[in-house]
Amino acid sequence: MTKLAPIRTRGHHDRYDRFSVLLHWLMAALLIAELSLGLWMTGLPKDTSGTRAYWFNIHKSIGMTLGLLILVRLLWALARARVSAVPMVPLLRKMAQASHALLYVFMLLVPLSGFLGSVFSGYPIRYFGWKLPQLAARWEDAKSLMSLVHEFSVYALMLLIAVHVLAFVHHQFILKDGLIRRMC
Questions:
Q1: Greater confidence, 178 or 46?
Q2: Which uninterrupted H or E stretch holds 127?
């Protein structure tokens, strides 16, 4: 395989702007925390202590925040100047583009399906303690469907995050093309 030249950092088109970088790393940290919390809290016992409900409400609040942040990120991506493409063979470029598109799809689908599952659960939704308006009555079939979509989407998102991290490792330690400088 031909070694690619290091990525140049001459102009602002070779790096992401500060706001994009902030959103990327903030969302990365929140996603790791949210996925870890989600996997952990499902093992909590259903009892009258309120512990499970407390952590589910924290999880839902972080999820709604991530949902809003991904919308901001999408709008910002449409508004800002495009960053130069990383030089790579066409097949890898298409795979990278598809992977990034799927990351966005699932970063939207996970919080949306979680939110709709909560809406149809019949329980009040709280955003960091603030009770949100009840948007629909309890609808068990819709709740079950949204729970299934949420679970599938979470695993798909985790797989895509792993691919994203492996692609970074490949760029950073095998190609040594300085890709990380674009996002710092």
A1: 46
A2: strand 126-127
Residue located via tokens 């308006």: 133
Q: Where are the domains of the chain?
A: 15-183
Distance CA 3, CA 118 (A): 49
- Please check whether residue 126 is in contact with residue 61, taking contact to mean a CB–CB distance below 8 angstroms: yes
Could you give the dihedral angle defined by the CA atoms of residues 52, 57, 63 and 66, in that order, rounded to the nearest 10 degrees?
Answer: -130
Angle at 66 between CA 63 and CA 68, to 5 degrees: 115
Tokens matching residue 120: 């149809």
At 9-55, the pLDDT tens digits run 344 468 899 999 999 999 999 999 999 999 999 999 999 999 999 99
Tokens at 3, concatenated: 């070694």
Quick one: tokens of 113? Answer: 């399906």
**Dihedral Cα 5, 6, 9, 14, nearest 10 deg:** 70
pTM above 0.85, yes or no: yes
Assess contact for 107 and 66: CB atoms under 8 A.
Answer: yes
172, pLDDT greater than 70: yes
Cα 11 to Cα 127: distance, rounded to the nearest angstrom: 41
